[in-house]
Queue: 2 jobs
Job 1
Amino acid sequence: MPNQSYPLLETVNDPTDLRKLQRPQLHDLAGELRQFLLNSVATTGGHLSSNLGTVELTVALHYVFNTPNDRLVWDVGHQTYPHKILTGRRTRMPSLRQLGGLSGFPQRAESEFDTFGTAHSSTSISAALGMALASKIKGEERRAIAIIGDGAMTAGMAFEALNNGGVADCDLLVILNDN
């Protein structure tokens, strides 16, 4: 990766650090994160446009929600590089999609912030609904957030989960990333 300085991004080693920033700093952080992504993917390969499209969304989610207690469930795994970077894996990005390196998708064994292993499956709403209902049953104070893309909304499983979520009394947020 080219030697480039990311003064704000380098202070964020996990979402707790992110939440210490002032709101006006988030714009600059997103700019640094976007440049870091460009340099990183240029070196390792991977999915670029889907990740550039989730920079601000990822910053906002980790800023607003108390992750990892609150659970983010990404539907399309190859839009999660910003999530990986902001959850303590920035220095490991040169190993992305390399043998023994970071996965190109969320993996529960890789980080406590990866609450559900996924790729292309339209399962985020079902998984987040299950987590939300489990939290309610256990009396836990946590939220479940499903981030689903417009392409994944073509699957019947997503609509089935929305139907069930519509009548479930639980703390579930579904975000449609209509890119």
Job 2
Amino acid sequence: IQWAVANGETVTGVTTMFINERMDEGDIILQDEITIEGKDTAESMCEKIASRGANLILKTLKAIDNGTAVRVPQDNSKATYARKLTKEDGRIDWTMPARAIYNRVRGFLPWPGTYCFARSGDEESRLAVLKASVEDGDGKPGEVISVDGEGPLIAAGDGALRLLEVRPAGRKIMSGQDYVRGHSVSVGQFIS
């Protein structure tokens, strides 16, 4: 689920299948396609998938019970595999396009989360990014290009990312605007 959102996919789904000796290669019984909306997160998709999956299981059990369950062989040449997420996957790489970073913020919520490092005074500390938006902007990747509006606007490899909701290390969740006011964020500063 996380990778589907993080990779910017627009659809995902649930499948019931017969089990065979190989991992996820059994014949398909039923499938249900689910749209990933632009503001969906991994967390909201889990809720959608759980609900739709429960309904699909009921339909599958009914089909098996009354003998109408079909067996559709999978085309293994179209199979994709998502590698296991690590905490390091959440580290923001500001050289990526802003849209790709935004998708990771959505896809990695709540785990592993996305984060960067920001300087406050003489210290650099971890800053969790919980909500963001993509905007136009130009600057060097990681450069704060605006502190007006709902939160700091950070230049990315293409476009910019507005930090709307963050959690500084050891602090509570706050709006991007409150973060700017309380942490001396200024234009030209770099976030790593």
